[in-house]
Design a protein that fits this description.
With 675 residues, this protein is mostly helical. It contains 29 helices and two strands. A hairpin with a 2-residue loop joins β1 and β2. α15 runs parallel beside α27.
Length: 675
């Protein structure tokens, strides 16, 4: 736990990240094997850079090589069980801290991943539907290895779900009700998961190989050349002087960092090392300081242009340009940060907190002189995306720009050894998410094989219709059409499922699974595809700050020295806008800018209504506006805020009318206190 009066060391921060993020819990190996692993990681980065920028490698082979790197390295980097940091396991059956069994698994993983892609394409085409014994053996081996690799790198939840889906595929005739199906033989299952592009070699691993790897590498290089420090310093210059300044710095810095990171926990540890102690110093309680950083950091996955891996999955699924996905993500992300800002500001006013002094703030001129070159790669990346270039093309030239800027910038110049380390770190950061993508391929493969997505969609819609019929028969709810209640309850059920599924599973994996399973339900309710994808994605991200498995909040609590569960609860409260915004853009898709039927008039009304609703929610949760609120006033404003979820002139007008008396009372109390 952090001491109240000191900043944690880099080693302590690394241990906190390792504790709460299983994706970074790497084992410590002997020096000789460490060199081998480092070389393999750099080779992985160089291969992906070459393949995306200059190579002409067929799709299956490219995915196979990526998968071979990922699975082979998982068994070298992640132990069977978590080990103590810095400890190298020894024994007659170990080589440089890695067991012989792990070395065998690593070699078998490479062989199984490359076996099919290295076969001539015409041979593979002939065997689809009629795999040979060697195909079935290698497919079975890859299935087992993928499950174990995912367990080691991201925890047991996702592989357990994948195993349940596999059992469901085989024992389909015994499934209950609408889930019952004809069942699949082991040969048929392996044929679908291994021999086709609907399973392990499917869209998930394809997107990781083609896009996500390059953008993660870009983020690592951009941070290495000083872009992260530039963002933190600029955030301090912009927001640090105002009431509760360090918390507002945390919001701005996390928004900036999220644009190149896309990782909630990494963002929390990186910016939280500076912002959390600063928040505590000006008077914020430790649990609130950690919650602010965690909530702001989860915005990284919804902030353009990187958005973790979800943006690229959407590009593949929806077959639309990346710039459209980024445009759709822009205002929902801004509303997320706006919601945090409102609560942070009200908390600062309630506690009477100060901003940072001139001595505590960085000098804007010095910051820009030292790091202005670092922004060039990001500007180039965004320009290429907006000009219609493919994401991999933009990432390749963004990486080149990072390297060039790193070698020519006068301050903190990049060296050959620094470039080697950055290339290795970039590849290392993709290993766990790559294993998760392969595991998700198993789940998606079962969904396409059995049609369970449409079956579950039918169950969800029927349940929502039943609930809608029941509620719609009660006055005053009967004033609203039953079909509207059916949509509301469907969204509510899917949102709950997303949060539950997201507990301990990477956001991208949650998103892919829920799109496959819940997507058909939203389609039946006439929800536009882009809107449905964003709805599922947002609630998957929310799991990072939703107890009991709020990993980003727990990492922040480790830095703040606060109670993890209390920090998680506070983080969920601060991030409540992220739970409201998806309902807003389902009812008013204009918020996504590129949705069908977009008009600027509807967008303006939707945005204004969402901001008003989020502000009222912030006031209700904070219990303060101009003066402290009574309990009934907080409840009343919370209820009124819901009128802005489906904004229109009538509901917005009613919301303003109902909120006005309480806000007027606040003005009266403020004047009375001043007098």
């Amino acid at each position: 736990m952090a001491d109240e009066n000191r900043t944690l060391s880099p080693e302590e921060l690394a241990e906190i990240e390792r504790k709460y993020d299983p994706e970074t819990a790497f084992r410590t190996t002997g020096p000789k094997l460490a060199i081998v692993i480092s070389t393999a990681l750099v080779a992985m980065s160089v291969y992906h850079f070459y393949a995306s920028g200059f190579g002409l490698i067929r799709e299956l082979l490219h995915r196979g090589i990526h998968l071979a790197f990922v699975l082979g390295l998982v068994f070298l980097l992640f132990p069977w069980r978590k080990s103590a940091p810095g400890a190298v396991a020894t024994g007659w059956y170990r080589v440089q801290g890695v067991s012989l069994l792990d070395l065998i698994f690593s070699a078998l993983a490479v062989a199984a991943a490359l076996y099919l892609p290295l076969l001539p394409p015409e041979v593979v085409a002939d065997r689809v539907g009629n795999p040979s014994q060697s195909d079935v053996f290698m497919g079975t081996a890859l299935l087992v290895i993928t499950l174990e690799a995912a367990r080691r790198s991201i925890g047991p939840t996702l592989p357990l779900i994948a195993l349940i889906f596999v059992l469901f595929a085989i024992f389909g005739p015994y499934a209950p009700g609408a889930l019952k199906h004809g069942g699949a033989s082991w040969l048929g299952l392996i044929n679908h998961l291994y021999m086709t592009n609907q399973g392990i070699y499917g869209i998930a691993i394809g997107v990781m190989a083609q896009y996500v790897f390059l953008f993660i590498l870009f983020g690592v290089l951009a941070t290495r050349i000083g872009l992260g420090q530039l963002f933190i310093d600029l955030a301090s210059v912009i927001a640090g002087r105002y009431a509760g300044g360090p918390a507002k710095v945390a919001i701005c810095a996390s928004a900036f960092m999220g644009s190149i990171s896309g990782s909630s926990i990494a963002n929390t540890v990186t910016t939280g090392a500076l912002t959390i102690p600063a928040m505590k110093k000006v008077g914020y309680p430790p649990h609130f300081s950690g919650a602010v950083e965690a909530t702001a950091s989860t915005g990284g996955q919804i902030t353009p242009p990187v958005m973790g891996a979800a943006a690229f999955i959407m590009v593949e699924y929806l077959e639309i340009p990346l710039r459209d996905v980024l445009a759709a993500a822009l205002f929902p992300a801004l509303l997320h940060y706006f919601g945090i800002f409102v609560m942070v500001h009200l908390e600062a006013k309630k506690l009477g907190l100060r901003g940072l002094t001139a001595e505590e703030l960085p000098k804007a001129g010095l910051v820009l002189r030292q790091h202005w070159l670092s922004i060039i790669p990001l500007i180039l990346l965004v320009y290429l995306i907006l000009s219609g270039r493919t994401p991999d093309f933009a990432a390749v030239y963004g990486i080149i720009a990072c390297v060039v800027v790193g070698f020519i910038k006068p301050h903190d110049r990049l060296t050959i050894s620094g470039l080697w380390t950055a290339l290795g770190d970039g590849a290392r950061n993709t290993i766990a998410v790559g294993a998760a993508a392969a595991c998700v391929g198993i789940i998606v493969g079962v969904v396409t094989l059995t049609g369970v997505g449409f079956r579950l969609g039918y169950v969800v819609v029927q349940t929502a219709n039943d609930l809608g019929t029941y509620v719609g028969g009660i006055w005053p709810f009967s004033l609203i059409e039953i079909t509207s209640w059916a949509l509301f309850f469907s969204l509510l059920l899917i949102a709950i499922a997303c949060i539950i599924m997201g507990a301990g599973i990477p956001t991208t994996a949650t998103y892919i699974i829920l799109v496959a399973v819940a997507g058909p339900a939203l389609a039946q309710l006439q929800v536009e595809q882009l809107v449905a994808h964003f709805f599922v994605f947002y609630y998957g991200v929310l799991a990072d700050i939703t107890p009991p498995v709020a990993l980003a909040a727990y990492a922040a609590a480790g830095i703040a020295g606060s109670n993890p569960f209390r920090t998680g609860n506070t983080a969920f409260r601060l991030g409540i806008a992220k739970a409201i915004v998806p309902f807003v853009f389902v009812y008013s898709p204009a918020l996504l800018l590129v949705a069908e039927g977009f008009t600027w008039g509807e967008f303006a009304v939707t945005l204004a209504g969402a901001m008003a609703g989020i502000t009222l929610i912030g006031i209700a949760f904070s219990g303060y506006f101009f003066a402290p609120l009574r309990a009934w006033e907080r409840v009343w404003l919370g209820i009124v805020a819901l009128l802005f979820v489906a904004p229109g002139m009538s509901t917005a007008g009613l919301g303003i009318l109902l909120a006005a008396p309480v806000l007027a009372l606040q003005v009266t109390r403020k004047r009375a206190a001043a007098a």
